[in-house]
Specification:
about 425 residues, mainly beta, Methylamine Dehydrogenase, Chain H, four-stranded antiparallel β-sheet, 1 helix, 32 strands
């Protein structure tokens, strides 16, 4: 094959530089991010992994799939224990799990179980399990009125996400209300705090009280005078699909979908005080929301351990139906704000799809993100640059967790074609 003088010159220059030991130009870190191999991989779960937590010493991990709870060593993946979960998943409903703090006997597990009520849709129950998989308490996740929602112009409520407080005493659920939000006609949001031992409702966050109207047959409906401004008794105006609890258990952070239809509405981040239910901060994702799509939806949130910074994944909402993720969404961008001032300090770009999990390292210097592009990225929160990328075999990554000392990062997931797995990486 003929070679032009230019081609020969380039080839000569390359080999000459290698021969004399001159270094080639360093690649742009944004163009070529190093990949890391896991230090341990756990593959004993037979179904999708939904939750995980490190023990306080970082040497053991408890992980939960839709079928079982396993305890294993974080440095080599060796299984210590396995307990089956006795429950019946509802087809076409997104599995929702939460894992309590790890103790000597393991971690308590909470999950959402749906009951099909003939002619009246589905009803969401929360089931609490012991560390050994024994069923303890079952309680209704929403008001019974949701079963009458279709004839009242509402929706069947569902739980999108859950989280325990760090002490394991309370459980926070977030999702949709049976009511329609104002104007846009989509699900309203619903965020509740429960007693994690008894299932007793402690508080509905963001609740707005209004008078009730009682029907002669005994039914109760919220009464709205014809000339009154409509203020629904729900926590957020659209689905509360992202949730995090602060490391000290003082605050709950929630992100909403917003609305992209004929009456578009921006996604929001709400921060509440757990003890009082008082709203601490509210961040709006966009001042102007274009019609169509979910450009301002918040799909993941995280709060730094010192409560000074909040991070969110914005605009990469995956396609969903009744909370079930149907496929990856558009590329998300990650944003970090100062909580006190409300100032945005970073916009992070690099994922090629949606992001549904975020986690800050204990020292706040790193942010981990799990994307539908089959990668977990580790970001430097000071510079906003990607430090390293961890590859994952499946695009459905459901959970992220740092070890207590921040030296290890674990991610778990799976899908219908591949059994669940957890990978553990060393953080640079």
């Amino acid at each position: 094959m003929d070679k032009s003088p230019y081609t020969v010159f380039v080839a000569f220059a390359f080999f000459a530089s290698v021969a004399v030991g001159q270094p080639l130009p360093e690649p742009n870190p944004d163009d070529q991010v190093p990949l890391a191999k896991p230090v341990a991989t756990f593959t004993s779960h037979t179904s999708e992994v939904m939750a995980l937590a490190f023990h306080s010493d970082g040497k053991q991990i408890v992980s939960v799939s839709t079928a079982d709870v396993c305890s294993w060593q974080s440095d080599n993946g060796r299984q210590i224990s396995n307990h089956k979960l006795a429950w019946s998943p509802q087809q076409h409903r997104q599995p929702v799990f939460a894992l309590g703090p790890a103790g000597r006997d393991g971690s308590p597990v909470a999950l959402v179980e749906y009951r099909a009520v003939r002619g009246r849709g589905f009803f969401a129950d929360v089931v609490l399990f012991s560390p050994t998989g024994n069923r303890l308490v079952t309680f209704a996740a929403h008001d019974e009125r949701q079963l009458d929602a279709p004839r009242r112009g509402g929706f069947s409520a569902y739980v999108a996400t859950m989280a325990y407080t760090p002490d394991g005493k309370q459980l926070v659920t977030a999702g949709t209300s049976w009511l329609v939000g104002p104007g846009h006609g989509l699900h309203g949001g619903d965020v509740r705090i429960w007693d994690a031992e008894t299932g007793k409702l402690i508080r509905l966050l963001g609740e707005v009280k209004r008078p009730e109207f009682r029907y002669p047959d005994g039914g109760v409906e919220k009464f709205i005078p014809p000339d009154a401004k409509v203020v629904p008794d729900l926590s957020t105006s659209t689905n509360a699909g992202a949730l995090a609890v602060s490391a000290d258990g003082k605050y709950v952070v929630v992100g909403t979908d917003g609305a992209g239809g004929e009456l578009p509405e921006a996604g929001e981040i709400w921060i509440w005080d757990v003890a009082s239910g008082k709203t601490i901060h509210m961040f709006t994702m966009r001042k102007i929301v274009p019609q169509g799509g979910w450009s301002s939806a918040v799909t993941a949130v995280a709060l730094s351990h010192d409560n000074k910074h909040v991070a969110a994944s914005v605009g990469g909402r995956p396609n969903r139906r009744d909370g079930l993720v149907l496929g990856p969404g558009p590329a998300a961008e990650l944003r970090i704000w100062e909580v006190g001032s409300g100032r945005q300090v970073h916009t992070l770009r690099g994922h090629q799809g949606s992001v549904i999990r975020l986690a800050f390292s204990p020292d706040g210097k790193r942010l981990a993100s799990a994307g539908s592009d089959q990668t977990v990225r580790l970001w430097d929160t000071g510079t906003g640059k990607t430090v390293i990328t961890f590859p994952f075999d499946t695009p459905q990554i459901n959970v992220l967790a740092f070890s207590p000392d921040g030296k290890l990062l674990a991610a778990g997931g799976g899908d219908g074609q591949k059994s669940g797995e957890v990978r553990v990486w060393a953080c640079p």
